[in-house]
Amino acid sequence: MKHRKEPPGDKNIIGTRVVAIRKAKRMKQKEFLARLQTFGLDISSTSLSRLEGQYRLVQDYEVVAIAKALDVSILELLGEETVE
């Protein structure tokens, strides 16, 4: 697994949560991208990597699709609720 060389960016607040939740569910990026497509969000692996690294802005409709694909609430994704 490749680790980031630079510290996280400041373009979004959900990137690190997406990584943590995805890994807790033992979901690889490729599988996550496929799940996102089923919820109407078609982004590239590079775009997902930038989102997770907090180097990319996230649109409101993307937050909804990401929460659905991870099977968590939007509040959990935003860090307002605890992930079980």
From TrEMBL:
- Where do the coiled-coil regions begin and end? none
The leader peptide range reads none
Protein name listed in UniProt:
Helix-turn-helix transcriptional regulator
Q: Which domain of life is it from?
A: Bacteria
- InterPro entries, A to Z: Cro/C1-type_HTH, Lambda_DNA-bd_dom_sf
Q: Which GO terms describe its molecular function?
A: DNA binding
